[in-house]
Amino acid sequence: xxxxxxxxxxxxxxxxxxxxxxxxxxxxxxxxxxxxxxxxxxxxxxxxxxxxxxxxxxxxxxxxxxxxxxxxxxxxxxxxxxxxxxxxxxxxxxxxxxxxxxxxxxxxxxxxxx
Length: 114
What we know:
Distance between the termini: 22 Å
Number of strands: 0
Largest sheet: none
Shape: elongated
Order of helices and strands: HHHH
C-alpha cells in the first residue's frame, strides 16, 4: 500500500505525518493534565508516536516508510486509550491520510490510462 515516488500526493502525505507528529507531541500535556497519566508514561507514549510519525515522514520514499506511516496512523489513534481526545484527533488524521492516499492512487490510475 504505497504510491509511486513521483506521485505529488507523497508530499501531502509527508505534511500530514508532520502535523500528526505535532499533535502527538501536544497530546503529552493532555495525558498529564486531563488523564492524570504519570509523566514517564505520557512522555513514552506521546514521544514514541511522535517519533514514529517523524521517521515515517522522512522515509516515505522507501518501502519501510510506508509501513511506518500506516503504523503511525494506528499509533495516533491508539493514543486515545491514554487520553480520549486522541481517538478523535487520531481518527481525523487517519481519515485525511486515507483520503489523500486514495486520491494519489486515482492520479496514478489516470496517468497510466491516459
